[in-house]
Design brief:
Layout lengths: L20 E11 L2 E10 L10 H6 L2 E4 L4 E4 L3 E4 L12 E5 L4 E3 L4 E5 L7 E6 L9 E4 L4 E5 L6 E3 L4 E7 L1 E2 L35 H10 L35 E2 L4 H16 L3
Antiparallel strand pairs: 1-2, 3-4, 4-5, 6-13, 7-12, 8-11, 9-10, 9-13, 14-15
Length: 276
């Protein structure tokens, strides 16, 4: 899709915060026999891939009947929809503030008024100044969210300070097909390639032994991060798992857009390839 230069700008819903505009597009969208003209600016970091606003609806004769959950196109086709069937990619976030100065000791918790329905899982994202808070998934009880201090240090919370922001989450099975990740490409590491730059004197009587040793431990010469080889001492860890299985829980995902989710998956694949 060609992107043309544009003199137009774009703001967020507050009317003040600027969006990074990179151009504009003019395309025709089709649904059945209908051709819908779509003119829009292209911005970075938009939560949804395409957003058709009021001008798009008005120009193409689209009517949205929210009480009846229907969309009418040019007074000819009526489309029924149900918002509960879809996982909305729109990121709804609330910034939580502290209404008084507090001291949170290690192991203690901070309660903040979240103004969200009870038993609704939310993602807690700490603000840059809240270094003692770890990202976590929590649920509100009586409109309050509890944030534990899991650090060994005392946390000081200032009055009216921005502590965290919360995002609504969605279950994995409700992800739309458009957000499906492409399977990572498995890279095949060539055996015996990293040690080729090591020069061994061919006159050395142990020349073939050196080559065999280099080939055996070729991963030591790789430029990628390797595994710990016990050079500073033997380090082992074990996880004790009881016989009782933990209760099944649905995985909760923060509502990142498709591009950020793809980047995150690629980074996780890279770490997994490096044996992390």
């Amino acid at each position: 899709m060609p992107i043309s230069p544009t003199p137009h700008g774009a703001n967020q819903a507050d009317g003040i915060t600027k969006l990074s505009v990179i151009g504009e597009v003019h395309v025709n969208l089709t649904r059945g026999d209908f051709v819908l003209a779509f003119d829009a600016v292209v911005v970075k970091d938009l939560d949804c891939a395409i957003l058709g606003g009021g001008p798009f609806l008005k120009y193409n004769g689209i009517t949205l009947d929210m009480p009846n959950d229907t969309i009418t196109i040019k007074n000819k086709e009526i489309i029924n929809y149900n918002t509960a069937q879809y996982c909305s990619p729109i990121r709804r976030s609330n910034v939580l503030r502290s209404h008084r100065t507090q001291i949170i000791y290690p192991g203690d918790f901070l309660e903040l008024n979240a103004n969200v329905p009870d038993q609704i899982p939310v993602e807690i994202e700490p603000r840059s100044e809240s270094t003692w808070i770890q990202p976590q998934i929590s649920t509100a009880v009586s409109g309050q969210v509890r944030i534990l201090n899991l650090t060994p240090d005392i946390a000081h919370v200032q009055k009216c300070g921005h502590i965290v922001q919360i995002h609504f989450t969605s279950t994995c099975e409700n992800l739309s097909p458009g957000n499906t990740l492409t399977p990572p490409v498995q890279s095949k590491q060539d055996i015996g390639q990293h040690s080729l730059h090591i020069l061994v004197d061919q006159a050395n009587p142990y020349y073939n032994d050196f080559l065999a040793l280099h080939s055996r431990y070729d991963n030591v010469f790789s430029s990628k991060i390797g595994k710990y080889n016990d050079a500073s001492g033997r380090i082992r860890s074990s996880i004790n798992i009881g016989t009782i299985e933990p209760p099944s829980q649905k995985a909760r995902l923060p509502p990142h857009d498709a591009n950020k989710t793809q980047i995150l998956q690629q980074k996780v694949d890279e770490l997994e390839e490096l044996a992390f």
